[in-house]
Specification:
alpha+beta; about 20% helix
Length: about 90
């Protein structure tokens, strides 16, 4: 599962003011440490690179899909509380 969250109306802002978060829930491919990985990546526009660039990244491993989904939702709600309420996964 992958989702990009942004603030409403971000597309009307100058690129230099745009920011977004990417949330991911992935199955671990490590056979020695099975589980699920929840990742949160913060990106901002870089004028020098002319693209969105990684600013900060966090990830955590969970043993079960249920726990990973719970953590994903908790991270999603924390971002919503910061104003990142627009999702690329929501139907218009």
């Amino acid at each position: 599962m992958q989702e990009v969250l942004s603030k409403p109306g971000y597309e009307k802002l100058p690129l230099s003011e745009q920011e977004l978060y990417e949330l991911r829930l992935d199955d671990s491919s490590d056979s020695w440490r099975p589980g699920f990985i929840v990742s949160e990546v913060y990106e901002r526009w870089s004028e020098i690179d002319r693209q969105f660039m990684l600013v900060e990244s966090e990830s955590e491993r969970w043993p079960t899909l249920e726990k990973a989904k719970e953590r994903y939702e908790a991270r999603r709600e924390a971002l919503r509380a910061k104003g990142f309420t627009q999702s690329d996964m929501e139907l218009l």
